[in-house]
Amino acid sequence: MSTHEDSTLARVALTWLAEPGTRSVHRLVDELGPVAALDLLLDGGAPQEGLRDSVAARSRAGDARAVAAEALRLADRLGARVVIPGDDEWPAPVEQLRDLHLRLPGAQRRVDIETAPPLCFWVRGPWPLAGALERSVAVVGARAATPYGIHVATDLGYGLADRDWTVVSGGAFGIDAAAHRGALNAGGLTVAVLACGVDRAYPMGNAALFDRIADTGLLVSEWPPGAEPLRPRFLIRNRVIAAGTRGTVLVEAAARSGATQTTRRAIALNRRAMVVPGPVTSAMSVGAHEMLREQPEARLVTGLAQVLEEVGRIGELAPVPRGPDRPADLLDDDARAIVEAMPRRGTVGVDALAARAGLAVRTVLRKLSMLEELALLVRRDDGYALARPPNRANRS
Amino acid sequence: MSTHEDSTLARVALTWLAEPGTRSVHRLVDELGPVAALDLLLDGGAPQEGLRDSVAARSRAGDARAVAAEALRLADRLGARVVIPGDDEWPAPVEQLRDLHLRLPGAQRRVDIETAPPLCFWVRGPWPLAGALERSVAVVGARAATPYGIHVATDLGYGLADRDWTVVSGGAFGIDAAAHRGALNAGGLTVAVLACGVDRAYPMGNAALFDRIADTGLLVSEWPPGAEPLRPRFLIRNRVIAAGTRGTVLVEAAARSGATQTTRRAIALNRRAMVVPGPVTSAMSVGAHEMLREQPEARLVTGLAQVLEEVGRIGELAPVPRGPDRPADLLDDDARAIVEAMPRRGTVGVDALAARAGLAVRTVLRKLSMLEELALLVRRDDGYALARPPNRANRS
To answer: Which of A32, A198, A292, A308 is the most buried if burial means most Cβ atoms within 10 Å?
Structure first.
């Protein structure tokens, strides 16, 4: 048996040898485990010629294990972590990408890329990834959004976060950024799934936004720190946004745009696919209207209530099997008593908090740093405050 | 056998005794013919108590036959005519209203009104009614339309007329008027189906529009000249708009508005139901989006091409059995030669026209007044011109 460390290193190295989502690589990992799969590929034993060639090409550029080790060291310095299957944080729903190719139209089935589950995630931010995605909705759309689209996406982001839904998007200009900002404005949780390293601000104009997301939400990527946002990676990335959420809302899209691809993936994965219509006179709604006309599964939604109605339904989504991984579920009785004793607004001193929670001051002090680390509480000059509306901690 | 004149008078009298669309009256006419049905009702022999009571109440206000005769005299003075089943002009598709109640949800099936075919139409304008409706699309929507809706409806009206489709609407402010105006601007044919007499300009603000429509299109009503636009009549009227056209396009509608009722009737009658989406931030698109969410048969359309795609399909619509009644189809060879010889733009003198058509001048002179009457040609100071794009005369 290989250690967790070996597995992690092998998965990172495999992601460097072949782009994430390569089905043949994922199948090898399934059969042999990541360490043996890596050995096989490095020995030139890939069963497919195309894969063999690309592994050989990457290997000439560097030693896969050394590159991976360097990426892990860099991540550590940046405060990023790697999450792999089997970890508590691993979001089980992305494993459903395993069958994605079977659900695509014939011509797309034979394609080896964009259809396998991720081998690993790089994560920056204070939340467990699986917990953050458990109750999540994607809001995606055009980069060249109109004021109408920005307004709608901001409103949806705010409203979803306000109802304790995590808002997932791609960190791009336009609709993506509006959705993230709406969620941040509501004091909610938002996750940006990137097509480059979690240390890279791409696009640069959203650098401040990424900093805010890394502080209170999550930056997530399948590529190691430093990785470039190459063009094909956006489409590879989209499958994670579709698979990791309960549904995708498409706000604005030009004809045949990438955002409509995310929505199509959501449909293929039996997630809710929702589309916001717009003026027929707007080029930025052409893709949205196409989707509504061509995809019977795409549901027209006009606002928050209708989005909640869609994603609130249980059913098609396979239950998430992995154990308690929402932050509130990880708390022991003392920590939970402290959270419940926090005032909804404003701050409270440690002594007063101990009294409210019915605990010894030293017990409270011991738990506070953990609660801070989980981003449930924040330390202020005059005491502690809830980091987010307390109902998130109470709901599941 | 009763004469055509007797039948007409009886149908007009019956429409005065009970509102058009009353199923029990239509059934009596089906069984007994209009003259005997009228006699039966006037003798107090209506099989339904409610109908008996309403006939008695109307009869106390006047003699039904005398009222009908007066209405016919008034119509004659106004240049309006009555059209009844069996007339060449009678639009066969409205007979499909006979089964409408069977296609409505349970609760609406037992209602006696709004679901029978008309007993007669009052018509003003130079076109045979059946021919005008043969290739027609309804464009309906909110009275309190936004500039966006007005823009879209005007464009659709123009584009449909330009492609030789008749634009049918209800003559109301907002979307209806915009659709009519668009068609008129294209030099096309438009039909206003009114909920009052064809001599009444309701709403008054559309008086000039009604004059233009009466000159080059048709004003149509089930109610006799002088009849008031009572509130329930708008819903009764809507079934004719739905039944008389190949499809209905809903452009803007507030929540639960009358225009959505027309679209629902179109669905019940297997006509194409099309809905133009709009900004989700607009109250005037709420009804349109509701329709798209709740009625699977309602098709989202974003412009002319998609509307044409829908109504251009043959299939669900029963073929119109009655013979040639499009103006161009009524022409003999000489008249057709004249129309085909007309210049697409500008005017032509009689001599030149005769030469172009290869006909004797006196033959041309004999046909010209008929072509003028059919509104295919117009007389100008310096000769004759086509009243409408010549392609209407060539297509069917």
So the answer is: A198
Task: Judge whether residue A83 has pLDDT over 90.
Answer: yes
Cβ within 8 Å of B, A 213-272 = none
Query: How far apart, in whole angstroms, are the C-alpha atoms of residue B123 and residue B75?
Result: 9
Nearest-angstrom CA–CA distance, A175 and A251: 7
Q: CB distance A276–B276 less than 8 Å?
A: no
- Compute φ and ψ for B88, nearest 5 degrees: -55, -35
Q: Are residues A9 and A82 in contact, defined by beta-carbon separation less than 8 angstroms?
A: no
Q: Cα dihedral sign for A287, A288, A291, A294?
A: negative
Name which of A152, A277, A286 is nearest B289 (Cβ-Cβ): A277
Question: Does the distance separating the beta carbons of A281 and B277 come in below 8 Å?
Answer: no
pLDDT at residue A328 greater than cutoff 60: no
Vertex B104: Cα angle to B103 and B108 (nearest 5): 145
The CATH class of A121-312 is alpha beta
- Number of other residues whose CB lies within 10 A of the CB of residue A215: 12
pLDDT (tens digit per residue) in B204-260:
999 999 999 999 999 999 999 999 999 999 999 999 999 999 999 999 999 888 889
What are the residues whose beta carbons fall under 8 Å from the beta carbon of A12, sequence distance 6 or more?
Answer: A68, A71, A72, A82, A119, A120, A224
Mean pLDDT computed over A45-55: 91
A295 touches chain B (CB under 8 A): no
Q: Which of A320, A244, A305 minimizes the C-alpha distance to A274?
A: A305
| Contacts with A80 (C-beta within 8 Å, 6 or more apart), sequence order | A122, A123, A124, A198, A199, A225
Is A278 in CB contact (< 8 Å) with chain B?
Answer: yes
The tokens of B54 are what?
């309403």
Domain boundaries, chain A: 1-72, 121-312, 327-394
Q: In what order do the strands lie in the sheet with B190-194?
A: B81-83, B121-124, B218-221, B190-194, B166-169, B136-140, B247-250, B272-275, B299-300
Rounded to whole angstroms, the Cα distance separating A43 from A52 reads 9
- Mind telling me how many Å the CA of A319 is from chain B's nearest CA? 28
B36: which residues sit within 8 A by CB, 6+ positions away? none
Contacts of residues B95-99 at CB distance under 8 Å and 24 or more positions apart, as own/partner, are: B96/B243, B96/B269, B96/B318, B97/B21, B97/B239, B97/B240, B97/B243, B97/B269, B98/B26
> In the predicted model, is pLDDT for residue A85 greater than 80?
yes
- CA distances from residue A394 to A327, A359, A377, A388, B285 in whole angstroms, order as listed: 11, 20, 14, 12, 38
Is the CA virtual torsion B362, B364, B369, B370 positive or negative?
positive
No. of H helices and E strands in chain A? Answer: 19, 11
Asked if A152 and B280 come within 8 Å (Cβ–Cβ), the reply is yes
Q: Which residues contact B234 (CB under 8 A, 6 or more apart)?
A: B170, B195, B258
B305 touches chain A (CB under 8 A): no
Q: Tell me the pLDDT band of A315, cut-offs 50, 70 and 90.
A: very low
Is residue A121 within a helix (H) or strand (E), and if so which, with residue range? strand A121-124
For A207-247, what is each residue's pLDDT tens digit? Answer: 999 999 999 999 999 999 999 999 999 999 999 999 999 99
Q: Which top CATH class is A327-394?
A: mainly alpha
Nearest CA-CA distance, residue B301 and chain A, Å: 8
Size of interface A-B (CB pairs under 8 A): 51
Can you tell me which residue has the tokens 């640069």? A204
Place of tokens 């879209």: B152
Predicted-assembly ipTM surpassing the 0.85 threshold? no
For residue B281, which residues of chain A lie inside 8 Å, CB to CB? 148, 151-152
Burial of residue A308, with CB atoms counted within 10 A of its CB: 0-12 exposed, 13-18 middle, 19 or more buried: middle
Tell me how far apart the alpha carbons of residues A242 and A252 are, in angstroms, rounded to a whole number.
17
